[in-house]
Structure formats: structure tokens, C-alpha cells
Write a structure and sequence with these properties.
alpha+beta, about 35% helix
């Protein structure tokens, strides 16, 4: 059984290089140190041996026009960002399903998780699977003080999707340093005052309910993503 999985896993591993996305990260559960994320993975797919995280860039040329303020009747540039993210979400979700399809065609169970619509526990403002923590575990970046994943190439300007798979995949060994410089522009400029300076041993501090309430009331807010200097060089 183990040899069969390893043989079929090579096909899935090779397929990852063919995906039409900007970034692909892989994490193997056998190397896992994040117990909470491992629990999330196995609760959704008990047979999972790995997960794949897919990312695409949110174009700064579009993001730079988005603002949380709206004027009644005036054209909203946020609509342009919404259409852009819909396009990215569609591409990312397709890629997650493509990985799932290749896995399942080779007799390996898989669960694709879409770029938009992962079930959320509203009591705690917590998704059933944390894409950003998965992306950090898969080597795509580190979570910064904004609570967003920050990648070396694109900063926090990315959308994510994931696929859990029974395939035994080898992670790419990437030497990374933390990209967040601690400038705290995200904290100082947050219009919802939802971010605070982290204390020792904390990566970030966020009031998820304040953030969510402001985004819903304003029709959308991406200030922490837009203002972050990481990935802007």
C-alpha cells in the first residue's frame, strides 16, 4: 500500500509544476510542527499526507485605487478590485480542483478548498482551515503584524486556495527570512483600529470582529494589504 501511494504521488508531484498560478507551496504532514493545522487537515481528510497551497498576485495597479470610503452615487473603484479578485479566485479554485483531480485519477483521496467560500465559524471568526497558516507551513511566506501572509515577492498582495491530498509530496526546501519589517503602518492606518502591536512571542494581534464589522459596513477594506511596503520594490 505504501509503495503504491509513493508511486502515484510522483505523478501528482510532477503535475504541480504545470499549474497556471504564481506560487505553489507544499507541506508534508510527516514533517509537521503545527499541531492545530495538522488537526484541521486530518479532520477534513483523515487520509491526508500533504497539502498544496496555491497563490496568485493581487495587482497593485488595481489595489491602489481601492478605498474603504464610499460616496453615494459615485463610481467605486472597489468594484474593479472585486472583479479582479473574482478572476483570481476562479483561477485558484480551478487549480485546487486540478490537483484534486490528478490525485483522485491515481486512486489517492483529495479535498480541494476554494479561494472563496471556505466554511467559517462565525462564533470565533475562524475558518475550518487556515489558508495563511497553511501557506506559512508550505514555505510561501510568513504571517506579519497585519495578520496577513507576507510573501517575499508580492508582500501581502496574494489570494490563496488549497488542496489536501493523500499523495506523499516533497516540500520545496526554501530558505526564507521574515519579510514583515515591523514598521506597523498596518496597525497605525487600520481604519477599524482592529490591529494592535504584538507582545513577545506573538506574531500579530487582531480584533477579528472589529475588522469584519468594518469591512461589512464599508463594503470592503484592503488598507493593510494596500499600504504594506513589503514586496513593493
Amino acid at each position: 500500500m505504501g509503495e503504491r501511494i509513493l508511486t502515484k504521488s510522483i505523478i501528482v508531484q510532477d503535475y504541480l509544476s504545470k499549474l497556471d498560478v504564481d506560487l505553489v507551496g507544499v507541506s508534508s504532514l510527516k514533517d509537521f510542527k503545527e499541531i492545530r493545522l495538522e488537526e484541521m487537515t486530518l479532520r477534513l481528510l483523515p487520509e491526508a499526507n500533504s497539502f498544496v497551497v496555491l497563490a496568485m498576485e493581487v495587482y497593485p495597479e488595481i489595489l491602489n485605487h481601492a478605498r474603504p470610503e464610499r460616496t453615494m452615487g459615485a463610481a467605486s473603484m472597489n468594484d474593479l478590485l472585486d472583479r479582479h479578485q473574482e478572476f483570481l479566485n476562479g483561477r485558484l479554485t480551478k487549480a485546487a480542483y486540478d490537483v484534486s483531480k490528478v490525485s483522485r485519477m491515481n486512486g489517492l483521496k483529495a479535498l480541494p478548498l476554494p479561494a472563496l467560500g471556505c466554511p467559517m465559524d462565525a462564533r470565533f471568526q475562524q475558518a475550518i482551515f487556515s489558508y495563511k497558516h497553511a501557506a506559512q507551513a508550505a514555505g510561501l511566506g510568513y504571517i506579519g503584524r497585519s495578520s496577513l501572509l507576507i510573501t517575499p515577492k508580492f508582500g501581502p498582495r496574494v489570494r490563496l486556495s488549497c488542496c489536501l491530498t493523500e499523495a506523499i509530496l516533497e516540500p520545496k526546501k526554501v530558505a526564507m527570512t521574515r519579510v514583515c519589517s515591523g514598521c506597523e503602518v498596518c496597525i497605525n492606518k487600520c481604519p477599524a483600529s482592529a490591529l494592535s502591536s504584538p507582545q513577545a512571542e506573538e506574531l500579530y494581534v487582531i480584533n477579528k470582529f472589529a475588522c469584519s464589522s468594518f469591512r461589512n459596513a464599508s463594503g470592503g477594506c484592503t488598507e493593510c494589504m494596500r499600504l504594506c511596503p513589503a514586496g513593493n520594490s
